[in-house]
């Protein structure tokens, strides 16, 4: 019984040490969703395209078209969802980790979508 208590204590100690040092590890560092144009396009495709659809073909009737909207409008709405000023459980979760720069890049991407693809 004492052996299991010692093993349990070592396990807890090891987890505690890991919790202190791992957050500083560069492997676990948060990568921004839209740092580069290629990353922005990938984020738009995988994060937004599932509901808003590729090439503005919506997946469901209630999902708004976002391609071609004004950049300021899109950025404001994304910030509102991120900051939970506008409530939608799915959108609040999707935007929770976006930085202001991520939002600006995504808004620019969708507002210029049709023009840059010609």
Explain what this protein looks like in three dimensions.
- The protein is mainly α.
- The chain has 2 domains: 1-30; 34-116, Orthogonal Bundle (Cytochrome Bc1 Complex, Chain D, domain 2), CATH 1.10.760.10.
- It has helices spanning 2-21, 37-52, 71-82, 89-95, 100-111, 113-116.
- Helix 2 (37-52) crosses helix 5 and helix 3 packs antiparallel against helix 5.
- The protein starts with a helix and ends with a helix.
Order of H and E elements: HHHHHH
Q: How many helices in DSSP terms?
A: 6
Unreliable segments (pLDDT under 50, ≥5 consecutive)?
17-30
Number of strands: 0
Globally, the shape reads: elongated
The percentage helix is 55-70%
- Per CATH, the superfamily of the largest domain is Cytochrome c-like domain
Question: What does this entry show, briefly?
Answer:
It contains 6 helices and no strands. It is mostly helical. α2 packs across α5, α3 (71-82) packs across α4 and α3 (71-82) packs antiparallel against α5.
Supply the key terms.
elongated, 118 residues, 60% helix, mainly alpha, 2 domains, single chain, Cytochrome Bc1 Complex, Chain D, domain 2
Question: What are the SSEs and their pairings?
Answer:
Elements: H1 2-21, H2 37-52, H3 71-82, H4 89-95, H5 100-111, H6 113-116
Helix pairs in contact: 2-5, 3-4, 3-5
